[in-house]
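Researcher: I need the complex structure. Ligand is cytidine-5'-triphosphate. Inputs:
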Amino acid sequence: MSSPNLLESSPVSLSSQRRRKSAFTYRQLAQLATSTTSCPLRVIAHIDLDAFYAQCEMVRLDIPPDKPLAVQQWQGLIAINYPARAFGLNRHVTITEAIKQCPDLIMQHVATWKEGDEKWAYHEDSFKNMATHKVSLDPYRLESRRILATIKEHLPAAPISKVEKASIDEVFLDLSTHVHGIMLERFPELKGPPPYDDPTEQLPRPPTTALEWQTDALVDLDSTETEDDDPDWDDVAMVIASEIVRSVRAKIFEALKYTCSAGVARNKMLAKLGSAHKKPNQQTIIRNRAVHHFLSDFKFTKIRNLGGKLGDEIVAAFSTDTVKDLLEVPVEQLKKKIGDDTGTWLYNIIRGEDHSEVNPRTQIKSMLSAKSFRPSINTLDTAVRWIRIFVADIFSRLVEEGVLENKRRPKTLNLYHRQGAQTRSKSASIPMGRAMDETLLFDIAKGLLAQVVSEGRAWPCANLSLSVSGFEEGVTGNKGIGGFLLRGDEAKAISAAVREPSEVRNPETPPPSKRRRVEESGIQRFFGARQESSGGNSEREEQQDFHMKDEIREAHSPFDVPPSAQLASDDTPKAHAEMQSGHSDDDPSRYTCSRCNSTLLVTEQGEHDDWHFAKDLAADLAAEERTNTAAREQSRPASISLSTQPKGKGRGRPPNVVKAEKGQKKLQFG
Ligand code: CTP
Ligand code: CA
Ligand code: CA
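Model: Output:
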């Protein structure tokens, strides 16, 4: 994978004669091997797919790479390929304008779930059916998985290389250990023990050579450095990382026909800025000697976590929005004005210091399906129809997770309901004694909705979301469970059968206690809603309820990162997590969510906030779930152990958001 002629000889320069020792020590080399986050030789890459959804459609439909294409969602465009961008198209352009600007534009609508269908599909007329369809990003999620698998196949297994899926179309790679191994092979002089066995001894310098950067975009060096300066080991490490990344990108293209861009640097923050630096299909290297120059050209508001209110406050406090100016401010003054933690964090981040870990998160912890209603919905039937789609959406993802084969299984189902400023959530255990199927989830979900409705003030409803959480690994060797958990094809066949909306085919009926609850609540017709929902006289009336916009990002990533918010899971000071959203300074139609640093349309803000809100609620519930497991076990087989959490403040961050594990701020959503 790596080119053998990494180093080409060049005349020995004066400076190398002056500095015969490396700036790095044996200890630091050893830290590279263990990929210590503070190691100055560390090599991190960030890979981001070019115009991802658009490429998915190009690949799927086998469209030549030079044809302009945009991905349509209802009346908007959500992804635009690079040939179409050459016509000046972007995500703000309406469909009519787009066609005017680029008459040959291919517009492909995203796949949708049609009410009553078993699976999402590419419907030709979906754009006319916002009322009865829900967007499915499953096709992109599947491609995302294939790409991730290709990347992993091409790299040594963990812990030699670490891969963190950061969003639907991007990954971070920690290549430190891998690069260390290659360095030792290529430069055997690094293998020896340090002189006097002292790890603080400096390494010998690398051979005096010119590094072969091939086609990489190299960021200009700091003013104190020149290209004539001899490389040190950090440059060598970076070249090797860059070879690896180039070969990974080539592999992705060869195997799957996708192009991507990459950034290589000493940490995640810089690597991420690097991948966006030159697009499409390019890779940018930010050598350590170029970091200050690279960053000083940025407005600090472009750095993650500095796009929102905190960024605005800093702009106000120091009367500047440039990194360059802020670099002049002593740390003490930063601390005085914005607090000790944040001040220290800011001081380091603008100097390119970021010690967050590449976190290989493989297991999905929860899955969310949601819809915001604009205008709000007003009837139970409408709500039940959406619940049915959420269940189908989540269930299909559970099947992919291996739930039918009992590999993993969620313990809890959560429903969120928003009415005015109040969000209520209900959760129920998914009984372990039952085979997991859509009917089971649908019945429980309807039960939860019944609870909300029976409490009153359910309408108008502005948002409904359903999630599963509390995944447990498969139970083996347990007779009782093995009795109903089916394997592979058999299970799939049965699951196809139970998708039929017939009680007769359904092997199980809702547990008696649940029935009772629902009957008591006086909305018994709930359990018949499934059949009713496929037609009937109320259909026309309900159409009026359905003028809502799908949440683009409801199912965005198998992980907990909204679009273009890839760094949300980094370990940043608590203060940042609590920041509010702010508007982007250079485009009044856009704002940057300070919780995840996504740049979004202002019109998308409501939905985006909902998205965070729902996730925070899910996090609450997951934590509650952990602490209440024992109690809930006792309440079986009632299976609906309800937890009601009125969130009086509505939008925004709920007061008791659960603290995530170290290095991983949030729960993952499927
Ligand atoms: N996306 C979205 N809604 C957003 C932001 C992004 O649906 N608010 C989708 C886009 O359709 C995109 C994918 O998420 O294809 C990845 O987003 P991003 O990497 O930001 O943009 P790309 O379209 O991949 O373009 P680029 O080449 O600039 O990365
Ligand atoms: Ca992208
Ligand atoms: Ca991206």
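Model: Summary of the prediction. The pocket of calcium ion (ligand 3) is lined by residues 48, 167, 169-170, 564, 566 (CB under 6 Å).
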